[in-house]
Automatic annotation (TrEMBL):
Full protein name: Xanthine dehydrogenase accessory factor
Every XdhC Rossmann domain range: 130-275
Membrane-spanning segments: none
Domain XdhC- CoxI positions: 20-75
InterPro entries: MoCofactor_Util/Proc, Xanthine_DH_XdhC, XdhC_CoxI, XdhC_Rossmann_dom
Annotated Pfam families: XdhC_C (PF13478), XdhC_CoxI (PF02625)
Source species taxonomy: Bacteria, Pseudomonadati, Pseudomonadota, Betaproteobacteria, Burkholderiales
Amino acid sequence: MGDGGDMTALQRLLDGLASAPACLVTVESIQGSAPREPGAWMAVFGAAQGPVIGTIGGGHLEWQSIADAREWLAAAPAGGAPDTRLVRHALGPSLGQCCGGVVQVRLERITAAQAPALRERLAPRLTPVALFGGGHVGHALARVLAPLPFALHWIDSRDGIFPPQAAPGTVCEHSEPVQGAVPTLAAGSLVLVMSFSHAEDLDVVAACLQRRRARGDLPFIGMIGSRTKWATFRRRLAERGFTEAELAGVTCPIGVPGIVGKAPEVIAVAVAAQLLQQVAGSAAGG
């Protein structure tokens, strides 16, 4: 699967192919600094006014690649077999971009017949996130996470707490007791705890620590709250038999440091940034 797009852009591409072929432009490789990573893609349809879906980073590199794609499409015979070619761009001297790196892009003529393979190939890798709590911050966070490379499993013990239409790909679950959902979480889930109740928060964190002890497959457990809240929880969790090493694996407060606002949307952005750091750290370590 790819890393360079999102599910909405991919669906727009597949819908567009139903009526016309396109040129898929993919970042094949990079050397040095570049606007986007390998796997980033955009799709170019038709002539000068045809739509462009996705992005390989903007700027002159993207402008030139769109022109190349349209030329490639115009030169391809109608109904001809799909074909590809590679184009090398030195960002400094050839395109006047100050990145200074070298980007190699692949131009590929694609048609509706390739839609199933493209869906599998271009679908972004999604990291599972388990969000316990449907309050103001939970709703803000669900909105922020929707376009990011996460698969959201959203859990609350209350009825009627989720929006009528959650973002595509979001799984909403009513669980009573709320910690009963912990054993069913996808392996590798990044867990966020922010329920309406401190008692629920405590039970969810305890269940996550128990699962981590047994299976070791929850790489991040984070809880909203102050350092004072965590000090109280730490003592109560220790009384339940969790060790200092286990408790050191819980992040509280959550969110990247230095963002001090407490509005739900501000907290949501800070937490989403922290999750992205977790994903990047796992990728670098793996």
